[in-house]
Amino acid sequence: SASAADESEPETRADGAAPETETGVLAGDKSVSVDEPTGGLTAGLDPVLQQVEGTWIAWGDGEADFDVADERNRVAVPPDDGSYTLRRIDLSEEAVDSYYYGFSNRVLWPLCHGFTDLVENRSNDFDWYRTVNERFAEAVAENATADSTVWLQDYHFALAPRMIRESVPQSTTVAQFWHIPWPTATTFQRCPSGGQLLEGVLGNDLLGFHVDRYADNFLECVRRFLPSATVDRDRRIVSYGGHTTRVVATPMGVDAASYDQDARSASQTQLSSLFEKYDIAEDTVIGLGVDRLDYTKGIPERLAAIERFLERNPTWHGEFTFIQKATLSRTDIQAYERYGDLVRSEVERINQRFRTREWKPIVYTEDYLDSDDLCALYRRADVMVVSPLVDGMNLVTQEYIASSVDGDGTLLLSDRTGAHETLGSHAITIDPTDTDGFAGRLEAALSMPPHERKQRMNTLRNRVFDMDLDSWMETQFDWIRRVRSEIGQTGPQ
Ligand code: ADQ
């Protein structure tokens, strides 16, 4: 497996893992210690890699200044019995700035989410993107054998699959999961070096997206921009340059059982101390938003709907508080800095407008919340608001559902998320940009009869437990086995 960085700042990792504190990968004396992964995909991959005794190749912290051959860049995990190897690729500050904060997050992220006006293609960023993809591909080639499976994660590696394909044995299986949307052809047309990216991902034997729409967009882009490729849309198979790629839609899940368990063990004292910290009265009706501070997440639109709701419903003043938990992310990029400023000033303005001595409508925090606090909040929230303008999947939605162990929470879900395609029929659907409609849905959620709330939540919970992280991993590996046997049957191409 190869992976790039987490999506949030080091102190608040987006996969929900605890921050690396006293036992970081690199201890002060330059010996190596290892943290257990505690959340998200990391936690899903760890047991799989232990079982198959594989190699996990990831971007190191760049502080170590180890060269590639340094043994400290090959760490046995777990440290005592070394089931698998963690192979770190150290990137210089310039590489991180150009590859990660550059082409990955100033070009591919906005483009794949349709924010073409935010695309910033700085000179050298694509060259660095290629160089870093090459470094990962070389590391993969050093480790892959004829029966290895290589599994790449996300948009940070659009070029690596072809590089890998060309340097590993024919029978090695190369797969990738693309965690964000694939844009329409009209949008993708504006992607710098788009043709190279398509050729790159078509080095995979298997390419996974969350939902059908992204898979179909991808196939349409290949048809339009790589005319020599053969695209079988029904079977979702592409042949290009003598190589075949199968494209699948497999929506990712969360470790539902562990959210359920954490929510059940959340104590009243824990919740009370959070409410005390945020100055919220115990019996307040709670709305909740949990997001990385990212311009795709629709936070200002959500605030506008809350403002409209407060204008129209004076009886809810003093009774309803919206908690917005935001996690700082990619702050080196100006668009993120501006977005953070906008969100903070809107919160301030709305609070000034409606607050009383005892109450304010919005509690905004950028604090790190450990998973116990997060689950306690999810469980307590009466209404969860997930309102991205675009989102590949949105795992927060599933985390909320899995943590709603009392079965009485209500979910407002944007119809522009991957999550809506799998869960939308039992949530309350919102168009995040329709302020009036959104405010109306919030009113409807708050006045929904308890039996309807329970019924909807019950169905949502069944779905989220069915599609959990384990089941997603199994589906990935089932597909990998299937393409592997297909490669075996057709022989070298
Ligand atoms: P993200 O854009 O990061 O992921 P999301 O799927 O919601 O979006 O995942 C965020 C994760 O960060 C969640 O697990 C959440 O609990 C965690 N988190 C956020 N704030 C936190 C906090 N303060 N404390 C602790 N944990 C916090 C990208 C895509 C998504 C896709 C995922 C997975 O953009 O669309 O669902 O990858 O494929």
UniProtKB/TrEMBL annotation:
One of its GO terms (biological process) is trehalose biosynthetic process. GO terms for cellular component: cytosol. GO terms for molecular function: alpha,alpha-trehalose-phosphate synthase (UDP-forming) activity; trehalose-phosphatase activity. The lineage of its organism: Archaea, Methanobacteriati, Methanobacteriota, Stenosarchaea group, Halobacteria. This is Trehalose-6-phosphate synthase.
